[in-house]
Each structure stands twice: as structure tokens, then as C-alpha cells.
Amino acid sequence: MATTTATLTISSTDLLSDELALSTTATLTGADNSTGLIGTSGLARKTTANTTEYTLFAAADYTDDKAHKVYLKNTSTTATEYFEIQVAGTVVGRIWAGDWAFIPWSADSTGTNCDIDITPQAANMTLEYMLFTD
Amino acid sequence: MATTTAAVTLTSDLLSDNMSVSASTTCVKAGTTADGLDQIEYGYVEVATGDEYDLIATTPTAAKASKLFVKNHSIDETYYIAITQNSQAIGRLYAGDWMFIPADFHDAAADIAITSNGGTNKIEYALFHEGTALTTT
Prior knowledge:
The complex is a heterodimer of chains A (134) and B (137). With 134 residues, chain A is mainly β.
């Protein structure tokens, strides 16, 4: 069984009067079980040619309602550049230059296809991404 | 100005090339390089099975650089919370899982909601943001 772990550390010495030092590690397992996630897209990069919306992952390609996880990183260093992230057409949010995200993904395709779509704010932006599947 | 950093490390032996991916970002306001997110809502709740709750009670300003951290502290592997935004399923956080996502809050209906499944889930959450639209009393 493969072992995949995700560790998050959030820290700040001046956001609150009490120093913030949040750290957590998850061993990524399947839905309703303790078996490690069984697949990955591997780490990949995509440079967008224009500001068109792209489908990054199509829900129909994966099993519905599992414990999939998606990692995204905007490699841009220009502060005003962001990727808008949508799931099934719903805007989840924007990852700005240098930001990353780690998102659980249902891949639901029974109603609306929960595709993960990205829209770059500018042309020639690069997104780093990886999918772990259940 | 506050300085908050968020770092992730992903490791896996799924591939022959053992993977170790790390990233770190300083959480700053939209379109800036050094103006740090300076507001936070941080809490812990127990959510009974079957009910859907808005995790964030106020409405942060839309189209900004808000970040939302959620961790499911449950230990039973069959427990999970379903994450929805604007009533759209995003994904599931099973026992022990966490997420760190950008949160847009593009309109009043775009709350992030959680629904507990399997049993009472114990949820830690933190929203880092740059302003909220407070509701009048």
C-alpha cells in the first residue's frame, strides 16, 4: 500500500497576540477506509497561452464522491496575476502569484459535472498541479 | 501589517521516483506583494450528523485573497464532512484530512457550508481574510 502524506504549517508571530504555529499532517486514505490513495497524476505544469478557461480535471474520468485531493500552485511572481478556480462552474476562489491550494475533490458527475476548471488572469501563466485519486 | 506564511509538503511513494513536493506562500492581500492578510477567524466546532452549517458566519469581501483552512479531527475512517460552496459539492474531508483553499465569497450565497456524515465530526477551521461585510443587527 502506498503512503501519501500532506503536511501543512501555518505560522505568524504578529497576526494575533498569541503566536500562531499551526501544524498538521494527514496520511491520505480512501473514502471510508484506511487504505492509502491509489493513484496520482504526478506533478505537472501547464503554461496557458491565453486567458481562456481550461478544464484541468474532468470529473467523468474519476470515481464519484471519493477522497480525491488536488494540489495547485500559481508559479507567477507578478502580484496581480491569479488563476480563478472553479468546480462545476462555481468559483471557489483565486490563487494569486506564489499561492498554493490543497482541495478535496468530489469528482461528482451524477448531476453537474464537477470538473475543475482554471481561468488565468493573464496569458503565459504557469500552474503547477497534481491530483491524488482514491 | 501581519506576516503569515502557509507551507505544504506532499510526500508519496506512489511513483518509482519518491515524491516530495514543497511550497510556501506568504499570505498577502489581493494584487499585492507585501501587504499581509491581517484578519482571522479561527475556531473549532462539533457538527452533528445530517445538518448543514455555514462554516463562516460573516461574509468576507468577494474576489480577494482569502484563504480557508479546515481540518477534520475525527478519527473514525467512515466519518467525513461534505464541503459545498453556493450549494455546489466541492469535496469531502474524511477523518484526519485537511484542506487549504482560496475562498472567493463572490456573493451572499457563496458561503462555504459543511455537512457532517457518519457521526459527529470535530472540525477546526481558520479563515485568513482582508475584510468582511458585517451584517447589521
